[in-house]
Structure to design on (611 residues):
């Protein structure tokens, strides 16, 4: 079912956060009267304001006095008063008060209306004219002795703003351009009630503990090297187990849905991407490769679909051959901006569990239905992450390829498929791929954060650009519909999400080290050999078929307490503790997150199956 638009209380929360940005600016002005102000929009969960304090550098040590001054302003319960000025009077106001950033905005508005200021949050601009017409009047808001150029909205008075907390300060270039002055961006969070704020702050603390970069180091999952380069993760043996088991699950589902594995090279002639349209859209993200033998212009592949198209086009196709389904787990490369790289969340080497199906129009619904089932199987049945679907459609910009009629057809099909597959969905304009609309699946993690994971995309454009055809039953040549799908998406990015979702406590089938045997003393070593022989003979069937047990033996001359602590810190799901009494009884002590219990050696294999 489709999701409703945001409720009215969200509009009230927006006004509250916007008002707090002004209250924070009021406090800064009181404490540093020479402050110069940029813009202060609402952002997710809060607000910020860009300020220029000259030689003064803000730090967290200043937050207390800023918050104290904000609370004084809030306690005064001063009204937010709106008024307008002609643009020239507004410019005189900015000059008189020594506010060059406001003056720049007003000059831009005076020259060309909104067209010059699209790089800013328009809620911070006093717009009294519509469209791109030149602005004649601008609006202001006043609270006490602070007046700001602003379109609103605001709450009625400073006393109606809920609970807030200042969080951090960061550098920010004016209007996001590195040749402009650098300002200080002061961030705060705000909620309607103190309880909601405290809950959010608790989640932030929990998120710090779960940070995948921190856990990746502690659990020995991946590393980065300056010699290798930023955004190029190196996976350890333990981290590689995670990648391989998740990949095996995604590939297993693909094979069961009739997909066949293919394999393509990592470099290609740039001409391939000029035909597909990727060169014009993403040419500045490509790693270019120079040949010493030929004059070919080459690139590391940033995506796989153009290569798969060439496999489809390598021989004649009949309507009887369709659907033709290819899958491949392979790495692509994109020259992401250095400042945007972060752990596994944003990398330059991106491993995709990619697939492409070439289908007749009458086969679209069945193929998409199978892919939706696979998505639900992974996230609902195996990983336990609630899903909803975003129908990502085009907007009115010119960044998309293909005829409008094809887009309308594809978007109508996507909407029908979402309904027929009973998806909990919402629509988002401007989120489509440049070649077609898509269903993006959004998974909620343990902290309630939402992440895009799997995607299913319809593509009428690439078959046209590559002249892909099949001979139909009437003898006519027709173009197939192309369906792109990734169940995990970027495996690196998915791992960043899933590590934080589980806090590193992976389910038994996925854990890099599933079992650690801890000995109390050396007298039990012959009995440990019986346990390891048993573990070597066990093959777990689900969710990945024939998943062998991964175990180690800690028989060091250390205390049992130390061994337990180390195994727990490594988040190993099962610890088998073996002492002389266990040998006599023919059992082991099984320690999990749920507690500790005795299990006979004869029942151990069955017990592990239940995990």
């Amino acid at each position: 079912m489709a999701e409703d638009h945001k409720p009215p209380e969200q509009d009230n929360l927006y006004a509250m956060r916007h008002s707090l940005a002004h209250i924070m600016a009021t406090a800064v002005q009181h404490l540093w009267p020479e402050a110069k102000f940029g813009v202060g929009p609402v952002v997710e969960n809060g607000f910020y304001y860009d300020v220029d304090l000259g030689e003064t550098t803000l730090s967290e040590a200043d937050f207390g006095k800023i918050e104290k001054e904000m609370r004084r302003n809030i306690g005064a319960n001063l009204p937010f008063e709106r008024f307008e000025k002609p643009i020239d009077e507004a410019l005189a106001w900015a000059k008189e008060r020594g506010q060059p950033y406001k003056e720049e905005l007003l000059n831009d508005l005076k020259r060309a209306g909104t067209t010059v200021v699209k790089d800013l949050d328009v809620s911070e601009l006093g717009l009294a004219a519509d469209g791109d017409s030149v602005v004649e009047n601008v609006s202001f808001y006043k609270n006490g002795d602070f007046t700001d150029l602003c379109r609103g909205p605001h709450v009625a008075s400073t006393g109606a703003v809920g609970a807030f907390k200042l969080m951090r300060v960061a550098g920010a270039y004016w209007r996001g351009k590195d040749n402009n002055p650098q300002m200080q961006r002061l961030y705060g969070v705000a909620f309607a009630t103190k309880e909601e704020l405290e809950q959010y702050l608790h989640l932030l603390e929990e998120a710090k503990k779960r940070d995948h970069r921190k856990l990746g180091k502690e659990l020995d999952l991946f590393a980065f090297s300056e010699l290798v380069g930023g955004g190029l993760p190196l996976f350890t043996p333990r981290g590689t187990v995670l990648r391989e088991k998740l990949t095996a699950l995604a590939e297993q589902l693909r094979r069961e849905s009739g997909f066949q594995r293919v394999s393509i090279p990592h470099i290609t002639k740039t001409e391939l991407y000029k035909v597909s349209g990727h060169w014009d859209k993403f040419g500045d993200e490509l790693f270019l490769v120079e040949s010493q033998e030929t004059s070919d212009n080459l690139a590391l592949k940033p995506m796989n679909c153009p290569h798969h198209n060439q496999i489809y086009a390598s021989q004649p196709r009949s309507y009887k051959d369709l659907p033709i389904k290819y899958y491949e787990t392979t790495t692509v490369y994109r020259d992401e901006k250095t400042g945007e790289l972060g752990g596994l969340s944003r990398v330059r080497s991106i491993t995709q569990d990619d697939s492409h199906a070439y289908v007749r129009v009458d086969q679209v619904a069945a193929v998409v239905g199978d892919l939706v089932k696979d998505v639900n199987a992974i996230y609902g049945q195996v990983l336990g992450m609630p899903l909803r679907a975003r129908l990502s459609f085009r907007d009115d910009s010119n960044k998309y390829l293909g005829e409008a009629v094809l887009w309308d057809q594809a978007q109508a099909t996507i909407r029908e498929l979402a309904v027929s597959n009973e998806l909990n969905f919402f629509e988002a304009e401007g989120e489509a791929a440049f070649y077609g609309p898509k269903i993006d699946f959004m998974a909620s993690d343990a902290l309630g954060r939402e992440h895009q994971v799997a995607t299913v995309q319809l593509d009428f454009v690439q078959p046209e650009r590559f002249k892909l055809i099949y001979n139909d039953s009437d003898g006519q040549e027709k173009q197939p519909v192309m369906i792109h799908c990734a169940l995990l998406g970027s495996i690196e990015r998915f791992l960043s999400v899933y590590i934080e979702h589980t806090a590193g406590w992976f389910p038994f089938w996925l854990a890099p080290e599933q079992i650690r045997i801890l000995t109390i003393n050396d007298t039990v070593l012959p009995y440990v050999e019986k346990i390891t022989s048993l573990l070597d003979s066990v093959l777990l069937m689900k969710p990945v078929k024939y998943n062998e047990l991964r175990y180690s033996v800690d028989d060091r001359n250390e205390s049992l307490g130390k061994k337990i602590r180390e195994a727990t810190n490594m988040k190993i799901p099962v610890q088998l503790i073996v002492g002389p009494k266990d040998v006599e009884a023919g059992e082991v002590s099984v320690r999990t997150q749920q507690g500790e219990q005795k299990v006979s050696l004869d029942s151990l294999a069955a017990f592990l199956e239940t995990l």
About this structure: The CA atoms of residues 15 and 379 lie 36 Å apart. DSSP finds 18 helices and 30 strands in the chain. Residues 1-9, 114-133 have pLDDT under 50 and may be disordered.
